[in-house]
């Protein structure tokens, strides 16, 4: 995986997670009321849309079941982009031993029976699209990308004009 893409995924994942955490209970509604518990599917779908919009890379929605540490009826979903796992809701489970939201390898995820699917990226593909959650994630990601771009422009100006120039 390209290190630049992985860094961008880490930045976007942290921002999207922060956006979801910042939602009020009213904004979360029924579907996201117990976030991160029980929200792995829609969060993975929405993260896939944001990754595509921000990076141009299309991810794969992965649904996993049969994990030996979980109850037989429990499943989990996450996004994979270029073979890298992006999982904003793994912390709903105990004992994952994962830190952060983006992982090149994960022994915990490897124990699932995996079923990859295409993403449902368009609102008309959903019975009820979670607009509020998407908006919260997108706002947070847009803010981080904007900040990153401003810093890059600032650094570029300093390299051309010099560190003591005023502009």
Per-chain topology:
Blueprint: H1 3-21, H2 25-28, H3 40-55, E1 60-65, E2 75-81, E3 84-86, E4 102-103, H4 107-110, E5 113-117, H5 131-161
Antiparallel strand pairs: 1-2, 1-5, 2-3, 3-4
Describe the structure.
- By secondary structure, the protein is α+β, with helices and mostly antiparallel strands.
- The chain has one domain (3-161).
- It has helices at 3-21, 25-28, 40-55, 107-110, 131-161, and strands at residues 60-65, 75-81, 84-86, 102-103, 113-117.
- Strands 4-3-2-1-5 form a 5-stranded antiparallel beta sheet.
- A hairpin with a 2-residue loop joins strand 2 (75-81) and strand 3.
- Helix 1 packs across helix 3, helix 1 packs across helix 5 (131-161) and helix 3 (40-55) runs parallel beside helix 5 (131-161).
């Amino acid at each position: 995986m390209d290190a630049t893409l992985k860094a961008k995924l880490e930045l976007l994942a942290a921002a999207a997670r922060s956006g979801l955490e910042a939602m009020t209970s009213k904004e979360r509604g029924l579907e996201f009321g117990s976030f991160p518990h029980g929200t792995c599917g829609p969060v993975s779908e929405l993260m896939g849309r944001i990754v595509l919009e921000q990076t141009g890379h299309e991810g794969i929605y992965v649904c996993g079941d049969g994990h030996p540490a979980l109850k037989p009826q429990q499943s989990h979903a996450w996004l994979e982009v270029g073979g890298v796992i992006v999982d904003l809701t793994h912390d709903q489970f105990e004992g994952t031993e994962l830190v952060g939201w983006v992982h090149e390898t994960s022994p915990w995820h490897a124990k699932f029976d995996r079923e990859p699917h295409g993403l449902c990226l368009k609102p008309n593909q959903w019975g009820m699209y979670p607009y509020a959650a998407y908006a919260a994630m997108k706002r947070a990601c847009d803010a981080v990308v904007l900040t990153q771009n401003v810093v890059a422009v600032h650094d570029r100006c300093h390299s051309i004009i010099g560190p003591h120039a005023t502009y």
